[in-house]
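lol ok so funny story. i was supposed to be doing the assay writeup but got distracted and ended up predicting the structure for this chain instead. priorities right. anyway since i did it might as well share w the group, maybe its usefull for someone
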Amino acid sequence: MKQRGSGGDRPPSRRPGAGEGAGRRTEPGAASPKISKAEANDKALDSIIAADKTAALKLAPVSRETEERLDRYIALLREWQAKTNLVAPSTLPNLWTRHIADSLQLVDLAPAAKRWADLGSGGGFPGVVLACAMAGTPGASVHLVERIAKKAAFLREAIRVTTSPGVVHLAEIGDNVDRITGPVDCVTARALAPLHQLIGFAEPLMRQGAKALFLKGQDVEAELTEAAKYWNIRPQLHQSRTGDGWIVELNAADRRS
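and the output, tada:
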């Protein structure tokens, strides 16, 4: 019987030569940077917001200095948005057209106004935007009235970062007259309350000579009808440049007896 060796009938193994297998071996290359899903989303959002900014500044052009202030404001808002709900998340891609340009258009409706009061400023619309726009105007000031402490803290930081002429009042909206000293040329509000309530908040300032500019949505006619039950008013309507909304301009309001 034929004796099997330690390797049996298998051919002896051997190492490949210097040139053999070279085409099959993959050398490790430089590692590609890994981008998290959150970072990828942020980069995509950056691009969308940049395009939206271009569209917004065509609707409401501003100076280079104002644009830089608004850039700092938007950067701060996005930073705080992660921990404090300042705007509806669905509106983040349209921050510039939906919020910035929407606020800036008020300046053209009151071109001589220097002293503004914004009731229920929230995330800073229109108050901080107006303050950025007024920064180069001698004697300008914007009073921002906000009742929620976290939002008031954000507003103070936004005024600081943008070096804009704003004063933040942490107060109930109805207490604005006691908080605001000096004359006011224009009082504003956006997404705060039904029109008849807004007029009640603003009437003491209007009695002292302020014009009111209230940003409203598509249901403005219904709100005007309701407001007329409580107030004698002669409103002037301006269609918004940024959508289907309206701006209600009032120069006086008398409570019905």
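The radius of gyration is 30 Å. Residues 37-59 form the longest helix (23 residues).
back to the writeup now i swear
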